[in-house]
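Hey team,

Filing this mostly as a record. A colleague (T.K.) asked me to run one chain through the structure pipeline before their review meeting, and I want the input and output archived in the tracker in case anyone asks later how it was produced. No errors, nothing strange. Just documentation.

Input sequence:
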Amino acid sequence: MLVLILLPVGVWYGWDFYDSLKITPSAPAPRVVAGKPVFVAIMGVDQREHDVGRSDTLMLLRLDPKAEQVSLINIPRDTRVALDGHDSKINAAYALGGAKETTKVLAELLGIERPYYVTLNFQAFEELVNLVGGVYIDVEKHYVYDDPFQDLHIDIPAGRQLLLGEQALHYVRLRYDGVTNSDIARIERQQRFLQAFKERIPSNLTRITGMIRTVQKHVTTNIPEDDQTKLARGLFAARGNIAMQTLPGTPDDASGDWLLDEAKWNEVTGTWTGK
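Output structure:
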């Protein structure tokens, strides 16, 4: 979910935000082709001491600058992919080879060109939520969950309330809701959180400097520096035409994996222009 923070900040503040936000790329990548649709894999990374971590949240952003259209596709972290010749879940790709391996696997799975990447960690999420003064959410039910392995202890009462950094992170990370262990339900909560976060931005313009510092401190990307502003301008132009959806598929009851529905995915890509 951390990854969703960057989009509304840039879209609603405008490209001047990104012009001051440029981040030194962590790896070489091809330049953006003017006017051509651009894919970016956005990863929220669960980093732990002595562990490279996994991509706790993964989204594919597609920007079509000519059509001024943005597509945001949530990729369930249990999506089945092939890793080293074996069936695995896509969030394990980050542990195997970081963002580079994740973008490779994602491109192979979806039949698209290899996307750029942007990664953001949990600390950045908490700091950004706190910088906007928290986010108001109508919490659907009383969520209680403990995971000693992740040192994760969640207790969020039901009802409308202001969620600050740590509690907001708990809300968007939670998978087990007392009945089901569902990544799809978690994605739905993340999408609701994004909409609520957008509402907090206009009243917090004076905090933009702190947000810039936080993002620069915790973000890595391979988008060429000169192209970061170009992409941000494209996002700004498309701010009124953003479609969000979950990768079409079905759950495998035996393994819990999310299985891509290729026919429905082809329907999605069939609506794209300028492939």
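Quick notes for T.K.: The chain has one domain: 2-248. Residues 2-248 form a domain with the Aminopeptidase fold (CATH 3.40.630.190).
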